[in-house]
Write the structure tokens for this entry.
Amino acid sequence: MGEVKYCSPRCDLFKCAKNSAIYRSKDVWCRWTDEVCNVHDCNYATCVKRRLLPGGICGETVKRKTTERRIDEIVEPPVKLRGKALRRVGEKEIF
């Protein structure tokens, strides 16, 4: 899974939202545009597993990047309340 791969209309998970894709010999033909199916430019190309990324890249082949974040970055300062909101909640600060 180190290499990014592009989705192809021959993939088992590929689906045309317009139901316009038909198989002709070695190519997949789009009846909507009357040309060979091009996943990169098609607005109606979808993936059954919802893994199709912009540009026709298969999300199954992309390695996810995660980053560590400190709690200080995640937790925002509390919100101070006044007036009617303070009476309803009953606390001066909400986290």
Q: What stands out?
A: The mean pLDDT is 81. The CA atoms of residues 68 and 81 lie 32 Å apart. The chain is about 10% helix and 25% strand. The radius of gyration is 24 Å.
